[in-house]
Amino acid sequence: MVLGFEYKSSQIFAFFISLSLFPIVSLILSKSLSTFCIVLMPVAVSNPFAVQSYQVAIYSHAQDIPQFALDSLRYHPVKSNTILPLLEKRMNQPPSNNGGEVWVVVHTGLDVKFIASVTCGAMGNYPLFIFTPIPYSYLHPSAISSPVYLLAQTLLRSVHRSRIYSVFAPQVVAEVFAEVWSSLTNIGVVQKPYYHAMISYVTNETLTLRNISSIQGAHCELRPATLSDTNAVAELCFLFASDSEPFLLDREGAMYEARTLIQSGQCWVYTVTRPYEPTKIACLVAYTRNTNVAATITKVVTHHQFRSQGCAEKLVGRVCLHLLATKRYVSLFVGITNRAANVYRKVGFIGVGEGAQPVQDIDPYIELGFDRKYVQLGHW
């Protein structure tokens, strides 16, 4: 179904509010998660959002997502790393009751503006992830407010407001969405961001493996984790989560995460064995969002006993070498103030660390949470 309306730019918010006056719209979106489109007629301006129409479509089954949306995600494998890996996994599974997972595509014709996902991982519900293929320099709040409002209102008609506990997206997109969502739901935005990071990636062309000495007086090994490492891996998962407020883990949760990482083959460890002592795990690297062409490092943690000894740089480099044997990119997010950015720069991740020069698509991302009195916190 397509509804067409003309409006002046100053009338856009009144128009969106007026959508609530059309009960058939509510019925289509809340009773059936089939494609629904709204066509808008904005005033043309010279930017990627100068369109003849916006359309929004929402899908409850990955198999229904149109090819042009998949093509956009696959053309930007680094920027889409929060959405594409799980989407492709779901596409290879039989359609079933997916626990409320949905994907929202905002587009004009075959031109994607935003893709958002409400999905679930092994450890719980993910934040709302939002992808855009648009270069960051074009993402001005005034330019994106209309399509983001459309995305938010469509989402609200399909997902309970308590499900959206946070949004993680390019910084400007997340900030605009959070403001819009808060106005629609009357749920406040948590003042302190949950996560503020830069995205980066390494390729075979930029990968640098420095000759770093192993820990003196010990036999060291860099290898995939095995089930015999479960307890030590769980300890590092617990330590990692303890610095990731509000996404904390208890010991049982950390043990479950460790088993999941090891059994999926998505975890490497740096082991240290000294004479007459049991083997210890100095460092852990996990990569849990992967496609045919790109992998994403999602966890790097070094035990406090082995910090400042080059363990993380050595293990990250070895894992990247392993992944780049079959993939074109290895991506990650690193906190804006996290000194680990310097480690990643040494390995070959571009655009981060001291002295890094600006690089296209190495952009700031932010996770903004919503008042936890009214939402159900997940984990990622």
TrEMBL record:
Record-given protein name: N-acetyltransferase domain-containing protein
UniProt keyword Transmembrane, yes or no: yes
Gene3D superfamilies hit by this protein: 3.40.630.30
Organism whose genome encodes this protein: Agrocybe pediades
The UniProt record lists the keyword Transmembrane helix: yes
Keywords: Membrane, Transmembrane, Transmembrane helix
Annotated transmembrane regions: 12-29
PROSITE patterns per record: GNAT
GO molecular function, one term: acyltransferase activity, transferring groups other than amino-acyl groups
Domain N-acetyltransferase: 220-371
InterPro entries: Acyl_CoA_acyltransferase, GNAT_dom
